[in-house]
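In this section we turn from sequence analysis to structure. A common task in structural bioinformatics is to predict how a protein folds when a small molecule is present, because the ligand can shape the pocket around it. The inputs are simple: the amino acid sequence and a SMILES string for the ligand, here pyridoxal-5'-phosphate. Study the lines below before reading on.
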Amino acid sequence: MPHKSGRHFLQIPGPTNVPERVLRALSQPTMDHRGPEFAKLAREVLSGLQGVFLTKSPVIIYPGSGTGAWEASLVNTLSPGDKILMFETGHFATLWRDMGTRLGFQIDFVAGDWRHGADPAVVYAKLADDRDHQIKAVAVVHNETSTGVVSRIADVRRQIDAARHPALLLVDTISSLGSIEYRHDDWGVDVTVGCSQKGLMLPPGLGFNAISEKAIAASKTARMPRAYWDWEAMLRDNKAGFFPYTPSTNLLYGLREAIKMIMDEGLENIFARHERFGRATRAAVKAWGLDIVAQNPDEYSGVLTAVMMPEGRDADAFRQIVLERFDMSLGTGLGKLKGKVFRIGHLGDFNDLMLAGTLGGVEMGLALAGVPHKAGGVLAALDMLASESLAPVS
Ligand SMILES: Cc1ncc(COP(=O)(O)O)c(C=O)c1O
C-alpha cells in the first residue's frame, strides 16, 4: 500500500470520526471495575446519558453493538408470540423485523418503498382496528441509516394516543442519538435503542436502552427468556455504580468525555448543526442534478444523505474510485439499494470545512468515474454554508 499523507475521510454514516479528546480519554489505564473509582465513573455516565436521551428514566449500557440493544428492547418487554407493529422503512427496519421473527414474535410489517418514513396515519389505523389489543409494541427506526429518511416519532406517539392504545413504543435511535432532534420523555417513548459509534463519537462497542416506567413495569411480567440482556440485574447493580458483568471500562472513559463535549456544545446546537449539514449536502446533490433517496422534505436526515446513482452506473465502483484517489470512505448501498446508492455521512465530530472537503471528494469522484452530472455542487453547498451561519443557542 503506498503511503497516504493527511487524514483519512471517514464519511460513512457511522462509525464516525472519534475526536482527539475522546481518543485520549480512551487510552487511560484500564481500571478495577469493582473499585470505588469505577463507581464514580459509572454514575457520571449513567446520569450524563439521561441528558443525551432527554429523559429522567434510567439508561442501560451494554457492552455490545446496536443489534444487541435491539434484542434487549424486545426480550425485556415482550412475551413469546406477541404481536409487534413495524414499518419497512429500509434495510435496518428489515433487520429488526428479521430479529423479531427469529425470536418468535408475530410481526405486522407494513410494506414501504424505502423512500418514506413510518406513516403516522397507518399507526393510527392499525391500532384503532386492534380492539382487543393484540399489538403489544410499535417499533420504529428513527433515522433509517440505509436511506437517510427520518420517521416522525412525535407524530407516531400522537397517533398511538389518539387510538387510545396501550402498545409500547420502541424506537431505534442508533444513527440519530446526539445528532437529530430526539426527546425520549417528551415523545413518550418506552424504549429508546442507541449505541456508541455514531452521534456519540465513540468507537463501536456500547449499546443503550433508555427505558420508561411503563417499559420497566412491562418487563416484570414479560415472559421472553433473557439472561445477558436482562434489565433487572443491570438496574439493581447500576444503583450502586456497578454492572452485573464486566463493563467496557475504557469505552466508558470515552463516553464521559463525549458527553462533556455534547453538553458543552448543547443538544439544540448539535441538532441545528446537523440539519444545516443536511441542507448544504442536498444543495450540492441538487446542483449535480442527482436525486436523493428521501422523498418527503419533512423526513430529510441531517445525519446522512443517500444519493441515487444514475441508471446503469455502479455506486460501488464510484466509491472505490473515491477511496483510492482521495482516501475517503463513503457509505455503500445496503440491501436492495446495493450498487444503486451511495451514502454521504455528515454526522458526529464534523464541521463546515470537513463537509466542504467531503463534497469536493464526491464531485471529483463523479467526474473521474464518468458519472453524468452537472458541475457546481460544491459551490452551491459553500454558498449555503457561507450565507446561513449558525446562531448558537446558549
Ligand atoms: C438504524 C440502525 N439500526 C441498527 C443498526 C445495527 O447496529 P450495530 O451494527 O451496531 O449492531 C445500525 C447500524 O448501522 C443502524 O444504523
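Residues 14, 65-67, 92, 141, 145, 172, 174-175, 195, 204 surround pyridoxal-5'-phosphate (CB under 6 Å). As an exercise, try to locate the residues that line the pyridoxal-5'-phosphate site and compare them with your own expectations.
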